[in-house]
Amino acid sequence: MTPEPHFPTGTDDLTLDPPPGCPAHGIGPGGLHRLHEAPDLRALYRHLREEYGPVAPVLLHDDVPIWVVLGHAENLHMVRTPSHFTRDSRIWTPLRDGTVKPDHPLMPHIAWQPVCSYAEGEEHKRLRSAVVSAVAAVDGRALRRHIGRATQRLVNQFCESGRAELVSQFAEHLPMAVMCHVLGMPEEYNDRIVQAARDMLKGTETAIASNEYIMDCLRRLTARRRAQPEDDFTSHLINHPAGLNDEEVSQHLRVVLIAAYEATANLLANTIRRVLTDPGFRAQLNGGQMTVPQAVEQSLWDEPPFSTILGYFAKQDTELGGRRIRRGDGLLLGIAPANVDPRVRPDPTADMQGNRSHLAFSGGPHECPGQDIGRAIADVGVESLLMRLPDLRLDCAEEELRWTESIASQHLVELPVRFSPQPQQDVTARPSPTPRPIPQARPVWEIGTRPDVPEPAPLPPEPPVAASTAPAGGAERPRGTWRRLLHWWRGY
Ligand code: HEM
Asked: For 434-490, what is each residue's pLDDT tens digit?
């Protein structure tokens, strides 16, 4: 154990304020850096790594002390050692001694809630087992087919205009459309619920009302499925032997909906932005050296949707990365800094070639159980979008792109794009740059085949996974056994 030169997470030396007018902006008591005042968190993490090594003492709002874990190995050790570190914030010393006030800006991340994210031990196993089993019941191929259709619907809304803003018109909508379908409430998906989720996360003055709106949808869904189960996520959550009560079910639906919405919207926006602004990235995709899933994985390394998770808390005095951690200390899971730890990535610009050992989904007992759903939304969403709009390009200078950054995440504000206007496509067809037109509805009086319409070629048999509503001849079908197999496997 390395002796500490000072006691950064204690309040012993809080009198060392910089003098008035001190140029050391962002430096607080004890000479520690205030994370929330850093103009560039990546640069600050680099600096902290040089100054302190893999675990550094920093300050949150109101000069609340915390450790930020920068090392890949140290973060993994923390999340995989539940005997020493817990997600239960109620043991955090600054919370217990009143240093963290109830109106602390990070309270939504800190306040303990009766959901699996904050639980541990047997209670965590009980709650998480229900979530994991509900995720496992989601049919992967049917999900991919649904994501393809949801993408088609969204692209149809702007494809004829030749321009779009992909954060608000695509990246924020696709995960919500998919998750409303997965949970079993497709009728609740609309602009209002996307707006409510966005509003809730931004913490505006209407955030409480927005949270209530979402909770009301989820409580009604819980009551409906309790009375009459169906084959969807919510019914599996309710019927799991863990025996979640109605409030536990609705609260877990909220965790799932919001985690999926926020993280996947970020992942989609980040991956598309990278394709549009990095010529090498796009060339690799177009040339087949990189697949869309590999591009998504690269984005999870370089721009993880959650840059940190607040937090983990020490259950006993221990040591991490050569630092003495006291019982009750708080630690930020440093996902973004861990992903660029020079010990695992000596060249931070190197292509990770689909390597999945980044920490974007964390690890250990709390590792994200929905990662395959998040990946599927990003893979199919990006691939279908690029297929529909192959000449997609940025409609502003790259330097004009803006982000909102917090300690927890970084959001692209807008992603304006241009492309050659395209006709709408049948949502049940596989996305294509050369679509067949949407089939016209037949007049009700017409019987038999119209003589001017050529007979469609015979189709391969439908995949057994879900009934397709594709109209005969309306969908572009892949030819050849291999492509048919691929088509069936991808589910759209
Ligand atoms: C790209 C998309 C996603 C990313 C980057 C992501 C990332 C994460 C991270 C970093 C955690 C915290 C783990 C910890 O506390 O150490 C987490 C937890 C969680 N995520 Fe995800 N997530 C994504 C999508 C989803 C989806 C689609 C679902 C649901 C279907 C989901 C459900 C959850 C749940 C329930 C937890 C809490 C697990 C527990 O504490 O046991 N996530 N996620």
From this structure: 765 565 554 444 443 444 444 444 444 433 333 333 333 333 444 455 455 444 444
| pLDDT, position 381 | 98
Residue nearest to atom 9 of ligand 1 (CA): 361
CA atoms within 13 A on the CB side of 272: 35
Distance, CA 475 to ligand 1 centroid (Å)?
Answer: 35
Q: Say if residue 357's pLDDT is above 50.
A: yes
Residue with CA at minimum distance from ligand 1 atom 4: 263
Distance of alpha carbon 382 from alpha carbon 269, whole angstroms: 9
Q: Which atom of ligand 1 is found nearest the CA of 333? A: 16
The predicted pLDDT at position 437 comes to 59
Rounded to the nearest 10°, the torsion over CA 300, 303, 308, 309 is: -40
118 CA closest ligand 1 atom index: 40
Gap from CA of 64 to ligand 1 centroid (Å): 26
Give me the amino acid identity at 114.
P
Lookup: tokens for 65: 């002390």
How many residues can be counted in the chain?
492
Q: Return the structure tokens found at 405.
A: 């950054």
pLDDT at 452: 44
Ligand 1 pocket residues where CB is under 6 Å: 79, 87, 116-117, 128, 131, 135, 255-256, 259-260, 263-264, 267, 305-306, 309, 333, 360-362, 366, 368-371, 373-374
What's this model's pTM, rounded to 2 decimal places?
A: 0.86
Write out pLDDT tens, residues 29-57: 999 999 999 999 999 999 999 999 999 99
CA–CA dist 72, 318 (Å, integer): 18
